[in-house]
Amino acid sequence: MAKRIDVSGLSAYYSSFRAIEDISMAIEPRSVTAFIGPSGCGKSTFLRTLNRMHEVTPGGRVEGKVMLDDENLYGAGIDPVSVRREVGMVFQRPNPFPTMSVFDNVAAGLRLNGSYKKSELGDIVEKSLKGANLWNEVKDRLNKPGSGLSGGQQQRLCIARAIAVEPKVLLMDEPCSALDPISTLAIEDLIGELKERFTIVIVTHNMQQAARVSDRTAFFNLSAVGQPGKLIEIDDTERIFSNPSVQATEDYISGRFG
Ligand SMILES: Nc1ncnc2c1ncn2[C@@H]1O[C@H](COP(=O)(O)OP(=O)(O)OP(=O)(O)O)[C@@H](O)[C@H]1O
Ligand SMILES: [Mg+2]
After folding, report:
1. How confident is the model over 174-229, as pLDDT tens digits?
2. Residue 10 belongs to what H/E stretch?
3. What is the tally of structural domains in the chain?
4. What is the pLDDT of residue 257?
5. Which residues line ligand 1 (CB under 6 A)?
6. Domain region containing 139
7. CA 19 to ligand 1 center in whole angstroms
8. For position 117, what pLDDT does the model report?
9. Does 90 reside within a domain?
10. What letter does residue 101 receive in the DSSP assignment?
11. CB 228 within 8 A of CB 20
12. Does residue 258 register a pLDDT over 70?
């Protein structure tokens, strides 16, 4: 099967510090891949190399290759802004634009890249809010500030904003870590629905969550503080949680770590 994302030999630096080393992995379209591993092993750093957000950090630099379909995201002449349109991101803390209405939050990305017909905007916003399982809760308050929603609603608003521009890939960095259990389940259900249309990569510290939502799981680790993080193994989630190939993976998922 054709890969949506194909990473080879990727290292990422913060100035002279190499945070992750020589990572290679392939991700199929319409799948959910979970990144797990101890704090500091480079999960967020690696995630941000997949849409060229890593280089936004001063000193941030990447070596290696990230193919999105048949395009090398680090190739010459590639515009990072257009990469971020194709590879959207949802963060740990819901970050709706605080002064904008619910409607304008969802419309923000579309307005920024101007790739829509004015007459269609309302339909796209509605479709995106429905896609994020938020429409019924906000349809009567589209003109109220997005920051007035609950945390779980705000996170679904951010997902609606991300999917409104129809990215190929959706990156999520611990999207539930600031949410209560009910909102967390709502997001997990949503991920199951969104993978019909998008390729999803999610970082999580919650092993049950990784097991529940993902098709593939990648375990990252670092040999010591100050050493670069590495990909230890990636495999079907079922396999990682029942019979991983590497002892360190087994130790981590069973809580015998450190
Ligand atoms: N802006 C930065 N400048 C310098 N070093 C950084 C920066 N951000 C992260 N690092 C370092 O890079 C390494 C990987 O960090 P990263 O945030 O990717 O880990 P993580 O696996 O996401 O951890 P966590 O599970 O705690 O979120 C760590 O050693 C971290 O201290
Ligand atoms: Mg992180």
Report:
1. 999 999 999 999 999 999 999 999 999 999 999 999 999 999 999 999 999 899 99
2. strand 5-14
3. 1
4. 62
5. 14, 17, 19, 39-45, 57, 229
6. 5-253
7. 7
8. 86
9. yes
10. B
11. yes
12. no
Report the percent of the chain where pLDDT is more than 90: 93
- Cα–Cα distances in angstroms (integers) from residue 65 to residues 24, 49, 71, 250, 253, in the given order: 9, 10, 10, 29, 29
Q: Supply the pTM of this predicted model.
A: 0.96
**In CATH, what number is assigned to the domain containing residue 35?**
3.40.50.300
Residue 147 per-residue DSSP state: G
DSSP state of 145: B
Dihedral sign, Cα of residue 132, residue 84, residue 195, residue 45: negative
State the Cα–Cα distance between residues 146 and 102, nearest whole angstrom: 4
Contacts of 253 (CB under 8 A, 6+ apart): 36, 207, 219, 240, 241, 244
Burial class of residue 191 in the structure, from the number of CB atoms within 10 Å of its CB (0-12 exposed, 13-18 middle, 19+ buried): buried
What is the rounded CA–CA span in Å between residue 132 and residue 123? 14
Nearest CA to ligand 1 atom 18: 42
CA distances from 208 to 8, 70, 204, 253 (A): 29, 34, 9, 10
Q: Is 258 among the domain residues?
A: no
Q: How far is the CA of 91 from the centre of ligand 2 (A)?
A: 10
Which residues, at least 6 apart from 150, have a Cβ–Cβ distance to it below 8 Å? 183
Q: Which residue type does 46 have?
A: F
